[in-house]
Amino acid sequence: MFMEIRTIDTKPRVLIAEDNEEMVQAIVRKLGDRFDVIGIHQHGEEALRAVLEHQPHVVLLDILLPGLDGIMIARRLRSAKNTSKIVMLTGMEDRDYVRAAMEAGAHAYVFKRKMNTDLNRAIESALTGETFISCNGGA
């Protein structure tokens, strides 16, 4: 009897939507070996198509992307009943942006300036169904 043996990659698959190359490099370094980066996209439309096609476990979205912004992408993913967890990684720290992102379907919201301390925790929280929002530290 022939039986096919397949290896299963247990690392969560992450797709990054970020238009700043230096930030992309910092994100990839921060994710390290814990996550499998399956794509990096600089334009909103490209990112949306890639998420729908590849179904990553997690989508890291910047809010300010060329084309579709991160909040619109989150809305469209929610409308499409996509199961990817959405983690906003952005420099936008205003409460209105946080609220809009969470209402659009984000599972976590991370300030770029707090990426080193918050990003991996936010992803892990999103993967377990919890909500994570970076604290503004009293500002």
Provide an overview of this structure.
Helix 3 packs parallel to helix 4 (95-104). This protein has helices spanning 21-31, 44-54, 70-79, 95-104, 115-127; strands at residues 13-17, 36-41, 58-61, 85-90, 108-111, 132-133. It contains 5 helices and 6 strands, in the order βαβαβαβαβαβ. With 139 residues, the protein is α/β, with parallel strands linked by helices. Strand 1, helix 1 (21-31) and strand 2 (36-41) form a beta-alpha-beta unit. The protein is globular and about 35 Å long. Strands 2-1-3-4-5-6 form a 6-stranded parallel beta sheet, sandwiched between helices.
In short:
With 139 residues, the protein is an alpha/beta fold. It is 40% helix and 19% strand. The chain contains five helices and six strands, in the order βαβαβαβαβαβ.
What structural keywords apply?
139 residues; single chain; alpha/beta; 6-stranded parallel beta sheet
Q: Give the low-confidence spans.
A: 1-7
Order of helices and strands: EHEHEHEHEHE
Q: Tell me the overall shape.
A: globular
Distance between the termini: 66 Å
Rg estimate, integer Å = 15 Å
Structural class by SSE content:
alpha/beta
Give me the number of helical elements.
5
**DSSP helix fraction:** 25-40%
Content of β-strand: 15-25%
The total of beta strands comes to 6
Task: Give the biggest sheet.
Answer: 6 strands, parallel
Question: What is the residue-mean pLDDT, rounded to a whole number?
Answer: 92
Physical arrangement of strands within the biggest beta sheet: 2-1-3-4-5-6
